Each structure stands twice: as structure tokens, then as C-alpha cells.
Amino acid sequence: MNRVQLKRSTILKMALGGGGGGGSSEALLPPEEEEEAEGGLASRREAPFVVRALRIATVVSLYWFISITMVFLNKYLLGSPSLRLDAPLFVTFFQCLVTALLCKGLSLLAACSPLDFPSVRLDLKASRSVLPLSLVFIGMITFNNLCLKHVGVAFYNVGRSLTTVFNVLLSYLLLKQTTSLYAILACGTIIGGFWLGIDQEGAEGTLSWSGIIFGILASLCVSLNAIYTKKVLPAVDGSIWRLTFYNNVNACVLFLPLILLSNDYYTIYNFDKLQSFNFWGMMTLSGVFGFAIGYVTGLQIKFTSPLTHNVSGTAKACAQTVLAVCYYEETKSFLWWTSNMMVLGGSFAYTWVKGMEMKQVQAESLPKANEKNDAGV
């Protein structure tokens, strides 16, 4: 039982990195986390096939609904012509505040009910230990929202598609981990689709270089977030929920001076819908969805596998793009669609290659483990 819990905690490291609605949970899981998560499949073999199928379909549908709705909701808050709210830092700050309050509220509820949620309380020592990760976390969710503010929902997936590429690059630079030729080729396909997408956005007159730069920075921060999460997790006793709480509390504190020094403070002060119940309802809902995306990502991995989660995320991105084009009544060229297919195809190919490599490693390690057992080691 302890081993299963350990795997779940490892699985959720990436899942809950997004915290306040940044969407980082869309990133591919590192191969070592994929390996540790595979054992969760054994605990589901006892259930009947129909029950398992319905459970998986429900979880995947829930993941798709929350993820896609969150993107459209954030786009409305960040760049809707009808809302006219030019305060991305304040929106991100409020999402972090909602996430922190939800963590604390669930902790208090768990103390007087059967709810399985760890106790969270503000510890300044732990908060300081988490601070390096929180700085990366702030960059991740801020750049994600800024990218979404400046680009269309249809192009959002391409605009921040370099997370996988940065995963490979940072794994080599910081962890000295090499990558296979096939995985590098998959990354090359993603980069090619990224540049073709930029070219086509420019040809259609909808290119935003600010959005592109923010998308690249968001991709970099998502990769750094995965690395720093592993380093910081022991400071919170390995609890993902405590890490989520401290991350968002730190973010709330650090966002306050940024809001005061930026135009966001004046924008909010003069905002004509500040007394609107609908506005605050949408803001709160965006924070709830930002909190929920980490939870449903972990659920999807738990009831399927990390590889299936990555495939589901790729398919979800494709559906999200099609929905955005239809919803906003946009007309896209063949090459624009090709750029999206290259990014999605490259992401799927990278997932497939990593899955095959993990199976090969497991197949090679099994005889060695048997030899040790036979030798009485």
C-alpha cells in the first residue's frame, strides 16, 4: 500500500504544478515518473471490464471538460473585448488566492470528516524552502496567461508547444541525461510545426510576437517547474497538496508588489464591472478550475497510465483547437492546420518513443533482478 501511495505522489508532481490555473499540467511527464506510475495498473485489474471502461471514460471526459473550459474561461477574463479587463497579473493573483483558500478549506473539512486531505498550515520555514520553486511557478502561470492573452485559443497550443523540447534540453544541461535520436527527431517535428505556425499566423495578420515570447517563456518555466518540484518536495514531507498550498501562498504575497507597481492596480481601481457579481463569479470559477485541473490530471493518470494521459492530452489539444476555430468562426489555411498537426504529431511521437524506451528498460532490468534473486541477494 505504501508503494502505491508513493507512486501516486510521484505522478502528481507534474499534475499539480499548474496550481492557480496556469495549465502546466498539460506537460509531458518525465520518463522516470512514467516508470513509477505503471504499477498503478495492477490495482485496477480486479474490476470488471465494463466498470473499468466507464470509469476511464468518465475520468477522461472530466479532464477534457475542465481543461478546455479553463482555457476558454481564462481567455475571456484576459482578452475579452466585452469585458475589457487588461489586468493579467491581478487575474493570476486571484486564481492563486482561490487555490490557496481551497487547499486550506479542504484541510479544515478533512479534520472533521472522512475526506482524505492532508493538514496544511502556514510554516515560514517551509515557505522559504519552497520559495525557489514558487518563483518558477509564478513565471509559469504568469507567462501562460500572458501567452493566452495575446494569442488566440486556436493558436495557444502551438504558442506554448516547446515544453517537450525544453524538457530534453534541460535534462541534458542540468541532469546530464541523454536523449535518443528518435526522441530528438520528434522534438524537431515540434519545432518545425512551431515555426510554421508562426509563419502562418504572420501570413494571416494575427501574429503576436509578445504572445510567442510569452509562450516560449511559459514552456521553459513548465520544464523548470518539474525539475524544481523534485528538489523542493522533501521540504513539505512529500505532500503534493502542501506544496500546492505553499506555492500559491508565496505567489499571492509576491504578486502584490508586482500588481502595485504595474498598471493592473489602476486598471482594477477604475474597472467598471468591479461591483458585478457575474465578474467575480467568473473570476472565482477560473480559480476553481485551475485547482481542479491538477486533481483531474492526477485522476486520469491514476485510472489509465502516464502514456495514455499524454495521448489524451494531445487529442484534447486537437479538439480544443477545432472548437476554438469553430467558436470564434475563424478560417485557417491548410499550412496553418499542418503546423498544428506537426506539433501534435511530434508530441505523440515523443510520447510513443519514450514509452517504447521505458518498456525496453523494464525488459532488460527484469532478468537482472531475477539473477539477483536466484543468487540470494
TrEMBL record:
Keyword Transmembrane in annotation: yes
UniProt main location, coarse: membrane
Ranges where the Sugar phosphate transporter domain occurs: 55-350
Subcellular location: Membrane
Region of interest (Disordered), ranges: 15-37
Annotated keywords: Membrane, Transmembrane, Transmembrane helix
Chain ranges passing through the membrane: 53-77, 89-109, 130-148, 154-174, 181-198, 210-228, 240-259, 279-299, 334-353
Record's bilayer topology term: Multi-pass membrane protein
Keyword Transmembrane helix: yes
Name of protein: Sugar phosphate transporter domain-containing protein
